Amino acid sequence: MEFLTSSLIELITQTSTNLPPDVRAAMQGAVAAETPGTQASQALTIIASNIDMAAEDEGPICQDTGMPTFYIHTPAGASQVAIRKAVLEAVAEATRRGKLRPNSVDSITGKNSGNNLGAETPVIHFEQWEQDDIEVKLILKGGGCENKNAQYSLPANLDHLGKAGRDLEGVRKCILHAVWAAQGQGCSPGAIGVCIGSDRAHGYELAKSQLFRTLDDVNPNPVLAKLEAEIMDEANRLGVGAMGFGGKSSLIGCKITAANRLPASFFVSVAYNCWAFRRLGVHLDARHGAITKWVYRDPERVVEPMAKGEGFPLTGREVVLTTPLTEAQMRALKVGDVVLLNGDMFTGRDAMHAYLMKNPPPVDLNGAALYHCGPVMLKQPDGAWVSKAAGPTTSIREEPYQADVIKRYGVRAVIGKGGMGPKTLAALRECGAVYLNGIGGAAQYYARAIEKVNRVHLLEEFGVPEAMWHLSVKDFVAIVTMDAHGNSLHADIEQASAKELEALQAV
Ligand code: SF4
Fold first, then answer.
1. 434, 333 in Cβ contact below 8 A?
2. Pairwise CA distance, residues 15 & 289, whole Å
3. Ligand 1 center from residue 8 Cα (angstroms)
4. Nearest alpha carbon to residue 457 among 388, 360, 381
5. What is the residue with the minimal CA distance to atom 4 of ligand 1?
6. How much is the pLDDT for 303?
7. What does pTM read for this prediction?
8. For residue 139, which of 187, 205, 200 has the smallest C-alpha distance?
9. Largest CB tally within 10 Å, which of 13, 122, 149, 442?
């Protein structure tokens, strides 16, 4: 099958860089629903621009290209051994080309394989079918939203919703709880796949497989169709909003299936996918592997640009700052301020924060902007690095370390997404620092704010996503969501949405 590997590389490239039409339409709805000028609207404006930029440049929509997961249907006689080999080749090549971030980490040694290959990665599911073509569907679901998956065992007592019993009302409560608990950390507005029943392992599998339904389809089971519609309505009344900034769009899709269960078990499994909902598919000619048609795409349908204007609409009220940052500058900021950052910025995420607890930083972090980001980087023939995707990662993972890092090393601005907890908030107040929320998933948008990649530290030890990258940025847009006065937009939205959740308890 001479075209098989190249067809699979094209599938990976398109999945990573070009959102399917149903997701674009849902996101257009989210943009239209939001009140202009709000933080949620600003976030969605950046997201819309980012979707366009990614498609135009064939760059990853989000720097976290997730766990590549393939669902493959083969006709009788097709060699699954040959197809698996081609999938592995295609994944390694797409990684080399910067369409996938090296995301496969040895769970025992912590070593990144560098090419997305390793034990059980990528994930490949095979099934035989009666058609002549090979069908390959791919989903790239990132870690931020994967961490917001949830599984409930009914009966259960849920925060703000009370008792959830072994019936559809209990199921409804579990799903609403999962959307509320995700807040902005899974890069809302999200889409969820749900499985009612089955066992723990297969329930999660079935929940994820619901993400292969188009967002605008209608469940053939009228009971589930009604539940899906109710969840869409109620979840969007919670006020979590884009990026957890508050607002009207918390969910762009809810797809539910039901599977038989053991009499003693009643699980509800929820697979949460961020707005960067990357899934596509192809049919391949089983003789030579060439693409015969795309799944989720209509060749007749023109793909309209998402963004209405040119990028982020500046108002002139933005606070322009250049690193190194001072305590006085940080104490002057308050929640809601939009900041345009210029100058040096350093990335650091999980491995780097753990390292900084035991070792001095490889650079001077006094007055620094520390960016929670695991970028996609490509090395040029002359040895220089170029950033191909560089959006923020979920910050709450650094909560155990962040306060100490701020206090010990003089960091003045922490940039990430989804917000952080009370320990960090207290450190911001004590030291005179701020938390800046970037727009999760806006990897192309932020890559364009990077003027230069100056250096990289600890690359050998931690791999590309976890190394400390020294960047020079220009007009890097972020919103102050935790300030040096003890205010946190995230805590406020969590509380306000909890009240909305309570109001839905007995609907
Ligand atoms: S959009 Fe957010 S949750 Fe989704 S992959 Fe990117 S960083 Fe992760």
1. yes
2. 18
3. 23
4. 360
5. 274
6. 80
7. 0.94
8. 205
9. 442
Name the residue with the closest Cα to ligand 1, atom 6: 441
CA angle 265, 267, 271 (to 5 degrees): 160
Whole-number pLDDT of residue 310: 61
Length of the chain equals: 507
| Nearest residue by C-alpha to atom 1 in ligand 1 | 441
- pLDDT given for residue 507 in this prediction: 61
Contacts 24+ apart (CB under 8 A), 290-295: 290/3, 290/7, 291/3, 291/7, 291/10, 291/11, 292/133, 294/14, 295/135, 295/137
Could you list the beta-strand ranges (E) of 181-304.
190-197, 251-259, 267-273, 278-284, 291-295
Residue 220 exposed, middle or buried by CB count within 10 Å (0-12, 13-18, 19+) = exposed
Low-confidence spans in the chain with pLDDT less than 50: none
Q: What is the pLDDT of residue 497?
A: 97
Can you give the pLDDT at residue 19? 96
The answer to whether 475 touches 345, Cβ cutoff 8 Å, is: no
pLDDT, residue 350, reads 96
Residue 358: per-residue pLDDT: 97
* Residue 62 CB less than 6 A away from ligand 1: yes
